[in-house]
Amino acid sequence: LFTDEELVKRLTCEGLDSAKDKEPCQNYVVSGGPFIKARLLDDFKNQKGIGETIKARFARLEFEIHAPSWMGKLDFRINENGKLLYTSKSKEMGQCARAANSSKRFDCDVTVSPSSDAWYNVETRVEEGLESVNTLDPVYPGAIAFAVTGPLYLDVDSNGWTPPNTAPDIRRRDGKNCD
pLDDT (tens digit, 9 = 90+) per residue, 14-51? Predict the structure, then answer.
């Protein structure tokens, strides 16, 4: 168990100089109920997990979202460089199955092929419009179910991952900008 200050240092890699040293501290899933497993795979079945970098022109982002049945309906979002790429309602996304009567809510396999180095993360939360009925009441009355992964990095030119020149798309749930 960590104090708030220790946890922030571990998640932000405070005090670490090299990118290689920082990789392990970005391997996290922040969760208020559901759990997300995610990884990137290349053509040769090499794989890298959350907080790691894979060198490939394109990759498959595989992820599973798990939650108990009493948690209600969940949605997910896939973000590329902090901007929305797909949601659970996107038809062009690829192979994604919604499991019925199981703790596995989603089992997805999505091909990503950015034009330059990119990072990805997966979020899940209560389906929009159902916030008042889909809470964590059995364990934490009034809290809303959510989870988000740390970044998964794709180095498309295999010369070391370079951060994108874009700022994350920060929006409220109603779609308005957070100005």
Answer: 555 545 454 556 777 888 888 999 999 998 889 999 98
pTM score above 0.85: no
Instruction: Using the Cα atoms of residue 124, residue 125, residue 129 and residue 135 in order, give the sign of their dihedral.
Output: positive
Sign, Cα dihedral of 131, 70, 33, 86 = negative
Contact call for residues 23 and 53 (beta carbons, < 8 A): yes
Amino acid 59 reads: A
DSSP 83-104: EEEEETT-TTS-EEEE-SSSSE
| Phi-psi region at 8: left, alpha or beta (left = phi > 0; alpha = psi -120 to 50) | alpha
Q: Calculate the dihedral angle through the C-alpha atoms of 106, 107, 110, 116, rounding to the nearest 10 degrees.
A: 80
Only one residue has tokens 């159902």, namely: 130
Query: In angstroms, rounded to a whole number, what is the distance separating the alpha carbons of residues 96 and 110?
Result: 8
Please name the amino acid found at residue 5. E
Report residue 87's pLDDT band, with 50, 70 and 90 as the boundaries.
confident
Structure tokens belonging to residue 132: 């008042």
Report CA 142 to chain centroid distance, whole Å: 24
